[in-house]
Amino acid sequence: MKINGVATNPHPDKIMLADVYLQSLTAWQWLTMHFQSHVQFVPASDLVDPGIPSDELGAQGFLEMRDAKQSAEVTAYRALGWSVPATPTGAIVNGVVSPSPARSGGVHVGDEIVAVNGTSVHSTCQLIGDVHDLAPGTRVRLEIRRVKISNSGTLSWRAPVALSLRTANVPGGVGASGCAGIKARARSWLGVSGEDGFTYRLPGSVSIDTADIGGPSAGLAMTLSLINVLSGGSLTGHYVVAATGTIDVKGDVGDVGGVAEKTVAVQHAGASYFIVPQVEVSTARAAASPGLKILGMTTLAQALRDLRSLGGVAPQPLTAPS
User: Fold this and answer.
1) pLDDT tens, 2-26?
2) SS3 letters across the chain
3) Does domain 13-23+204-309 have CATH number 3.40.50.620?
């Protein structure tokens, strides 16, 4: 982690990120790895939503890591007392159905839709509303910020470009959008799922190197690490702590995969405590050996309280929030 613009703790405690390695397998690899312990076999189709091709998996993983970093930065600063204003930027594509108008038109995971037919888009629900009542076959003009994903998984966005697509009939199985005020089933469909894009004004800049790591499961670990670096005292009571779990900007901790394998890894790495999502406690305890204590969490606030019970101090920002 590199932080500029605010004071940092030069000797933070160790908070470890837990990761698993994901790869596609040949028949021979499946046979040779089948007898190895702590290896889990998952069909590629189980890792993506229905209709999303597995070739989107890599881009989805890197987008999820980017989102996890952003949430960790915002949540850490807010936990330390800073106000972090948010500005909506558009609808970021996190899935492209195949076949669909979006897939045929060259829309990719990570692209950000910022306008439809000249009207600015500030959220995914606004995008859905703009297309919802159009007749199938209607030509729409999208303005898109194309994403660039580096070989190591870093995302950056280019200036908006125009893209023309023709809407299609909504496939069977696609229900209501879930957006407030849009209750009926849509007439028209592009074939993308999305998430709201935001920029945040942070008190200091943060750079977290997660080269070649995708997915959202490092969110909690990165949040705790940032709080630790930005605070005085020992956040962990000088214990070696590992963590896994998603984080959102409200501080909620979410479920992740590979917890059994991560438990073995953090134990080998010397962790005394492993913080996991509450729903994964039984899985982690079943894989843990004596000496590794498992702590289940649903929120960042709960994680900070439990660390204080181990002897850690309450987070105290080295730079006073303004």
Assistant:
1) 999 999 998 778 899 988 877 777 7
2) CEEECCCCCCCCCCEEECCCCCCCCCHHHHHHHCCCCCCCCCCHHHHCCCCCCHHHHHHHHHHHHHHHHHHHHHHHHHHCCCCCCEEEEEEEEEEECCCCHHHHHCCCCCCEEEEECCEECCCHHHHHHHHHCCCCCCEEEEEEEEEEECCCCCEEEEEEEEEEEECECCCCCCCCCCCCCCCCCCCCECCEEEEEEEEECCCCEEECCCCCCCCCCCHHHHHHHHHHHHECCCCCCCCCEEECCEECCCCEEECCCCHHHHHHHHHHCCCCEEEEEHHHHHHHHHHCCCCCEEEEECEHHHHHHHHHHCCCCCCCECCCCC
3) no
